[in-house]
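Hi, here's the filled form for the chain we discussed.

Project: internal
Contact: R.S.
Residues: 409
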Amino acid sequence: MTQIPAKYVWVICLLFFAISCAGVPKVRFESPVDTSSKAIEPQIKRTFSIPNIGVYASNEFDGARLNGFTALNDSTAKVVIKPENTPINNSPYYAFTIWSDNKRPFYLTFEYPKGFKHRYTPKLGRSGHWQIIDSSAVFKKDSIVTIKLDLDKEPITVAAQEIQSSKDVSDWYMPFVTDISYVQKNILGKSTLGRDLVVLDINKPSSQKKALVVLMTRQHPPEVTGFYAFQAFLETILDNSELANAFLDRYRVLAFPLMNPDGVDLGHWRHNAGGVDTNRDWSKYRQPEVRHTVDHIHSIMKNEDLELVLGLDFHSTWYDVFYTNTKREGTTMPQFVDDWFGALEKNIEGYKVNEQAGNSKKPVSKGWFLYGHNAVGITYEIGDATPKQQIEKFGTVSSREMMKLLINQ
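And the returned structure, exactly as it came back:
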């Protein structure tokens, strides 16, 4: 047996280490984005008070965002809202509780850093119930927004969107894990701040060879309406109907219900605890949320010899829209997008699909599905102000029509 010279041993070891750590292949995009971690400005948790008038505000809960609270006069306070870092999208998110020693009308004027404008219509939460603020209580002067509240000793939560913290999300999905034998909760790894990164592995026993469908949401913390569509979509897959059972006989679903738990619980406008938009990290996987997700998907595909055919990423924006890839010929399901959208318009009265097609230049998830797996990738966006009942209908119908099409593949 020939002995390897000692001087070459370290070279061989180095090569072996490099190969073993190569991990999941990176995906090339035309316009790379630097997703190295960046410093964030921590939000100081506290209860603010204006003692002389007996009004208080607090950000001491998960999902809160309030950076300052000062009196402008006896009936008005300034609410200061700052992002976690910059540059950042114009999506000023806020959430806080407010109350008063005495029953009284009170006004709040929102202040954002220069260059940012008010985006979200306030939602008011009290005793677990939410409602949109009455339009007559919202006053706009140029870019300045002021709202009127009727305060008393019971705190009101004022938020850009209804609060859906990591605990709220867990409370929603855990009954599925507990009650449905083929739904398994797995921990992919930890976020930067040590929160669990969760996937729901939906794998109904079947004698048929399966393909893989991936669903994900909340890469961007305030995008709660997209999460509501994700909820309705997944609940329809798990409703034990004849359609759902036939679908799950042929497909395995990996559902990621909270892609950015740090950002959600910290009340971030858009980024994770690394100060990065995770939906720009689908190339080199520098952030733990994306890295663990990609590693898990690839591990499942490799170990089970599964083909990834469809990826849906649920978001929110100013209006309902589907962002699709233009390239379809030669992908897993070349006709899926057209057939799916046609089915939605046929089965939702008066509904017209708003599609914006374009192959992703930046490293976003829908581009990763296409370039990394030759699969159909769609960003499923729900409007900020789309009514919840309408969201549930969209989510339910789109899930049913997706299952019907995939069963017939």
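Let me know if anything looks off before we file it.
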